[in-house]
Amino acid sequence: MDPRSEVVIRQQDYLNGHVLLINAPNDQLAKLLPNQVQSSVWTWNYADHQAFLKSEINSHFSVEFPQHEFDQVVIFVPKSKELLNYILHVVISHLKMGQSVFLVGEKKGGVERAAKQLQPYGKTLKLDSARHCQFWQMKIEKNEILKPLEDWIKTYSIQIDQHTLEICALPGVFSQDHLDVGTAVLLPYLSQVKSGKIADFGCGAGVISGYLAKLNPNQQIFALDVDAFALRSTEITFKRNQLNLTQLTLQPVTGFQDAPTDLDAVVSNPPFHQGIHTNYDASEELCRRAKLHLKNAGELWIVANRFLNYPLLIEQSFSHCELKADQQGFKVLYACAK
Known about the structure:
By secondary structure, the chain is an alpha/beta fold. The chain folds into two domains: 3-140, Vaccinia Virus protein VP39 (Rossmann fold), CATH 3.40.50.150; 153-337, Vaccinia Virus protein VP39 (Rossmann fold, 3-Layer(aba) Sandwich). It is built from ten helices and 18 strands. The chain has helices spanning 3-10, 29-32, 46-54, 81-94, 111-116, 181-186, 207-215, 228-240, 281-289, 310-318, and strands at 17-22, 37-43, 59-61, 72-76, 100-106, 124-130, 133-139, 154-160, 163-169, 197-201, 220-225, 248-252, 263-268, 273-274, 277-278, 294-305, 322-327, 330-336. The strands form four sheets. Strands 3-2-1-4-5-7-6 form a seven-stranded mixed sheet. Helix 9 runs parallel beside helix 10. The termini are far apart.
């Protein structure tokens, strides 16, 4: 069991009534709480959501607060400070004065910093410190009026040749307020990508999907991501740039195995973070499985840190891997299914 969940169980006597576990780890915490607790989970991680449902845990996959009344919430600290600000705002907007908000997180994950973000809403109290984690309580002393989701968007513009794109990103989405270096290295090569049915794996704020749509309004683009905030950001980016939403399919995935088949191309700046931890499983799976999802002569285009072993994984699957660029610490890699 996740050590954060173990700390919650240590302090389970503080919990009662309808309790919402926000950003909870993928474990059995919701089932191990005492009888006076009716627990639900709010997650924006689709893989976790599917695991909760499989375990018959009541789970909500969304960027918005579930449409139910709760007596208490337990927030598992997210990596992003901005995302925690958003979560706290919507929690305070939905709960009543005097109700308890609990916060749990790893010390190395910034739980002490996160606890300070509780302070504008009420007095805070550290209830426990164990398993390299901390557990905090705050009783609500201030109400908030719910702001629309659009108020939380950060935007920036990118331009390649004659194409300009305004990127819209919600809190917690990768590279929320600027274009990351890897994607910047990849973008000039998108005009070479085979047109047709294309998957953007790890779509983030929709930089790649939006740019592909700008290049060719007839592309059929599948924006794939595990994160609900990323999928919604991609949709908002398309709307903001007046791109054709009929050519976009937003698809939550647990991993690349959920991607469509018979694709003409897969394009990706693959993800390698899960919470505060580095995890290459999803991106390595992409390198190994991409060919299975491509048509004959379908293409794989990815950008990755030059120190990663993706070329070897791609060669094992495609029998070749072509280096298109090596700039600023990133490589653009290409392979064709034959």
